[in-house]
Amino acid sequence: MNFEMIKQAREMQSKLAQAQKELKRIEVEVEAGKGAVKVVLNGEQKVLSIKIDPTLVDLKNMKQLEIFLLRALNDAQDKVQKQAAQTLKAATGGLKIPGLF
After folding, report:
1. What distance lies between CA 38 and its chain's CA centroid?
2. Which of 15, 24, 29, 33 is a plausible cystine mate for 91, CB 3.0–4.6 Å?
3. DSSP states of the chain as a string?
4. Would you list the domain boundaries of the chain?
5. Full-model pTM
6. Phi, psi (degrees; rounded to nearest 5) at 84
7. Confidence band (pLDDT; 50, 70, 90) for 61?
């Protein structure tokens, strides 16, 4: 391994560390059921909040609420994964690294 390769590896490591910090700051909010359910996830795909508008939800129909929750969580996760992939792609210069999105 030559000096130039070591230098490039260190630069990429630094860029990946910066990308991880950026992922922690990303927040994605998604709605389902015309605003009945709102979900916020961060770039690490952790749920930060779930809000349910009781005026838009029929508590006698829990199945519908479950569907709204699933839809919002899945949509938020998809959105976060896309943003994370873009962030990591920028950090790696498009290089595909196993284990990263």
Report:
1. 15
2. 15
3. --HHHHHHHHHHHHHHHHHHHHHHH-EEEEEETTTTEEEEEETT--EEEEEE-GGG--TT-HHHHHHHHHHHHHHHHHHHHHHHHHHHHHHHTT---TT--
4. 53-92
5. 0.73
6. -65, -40
7. confident
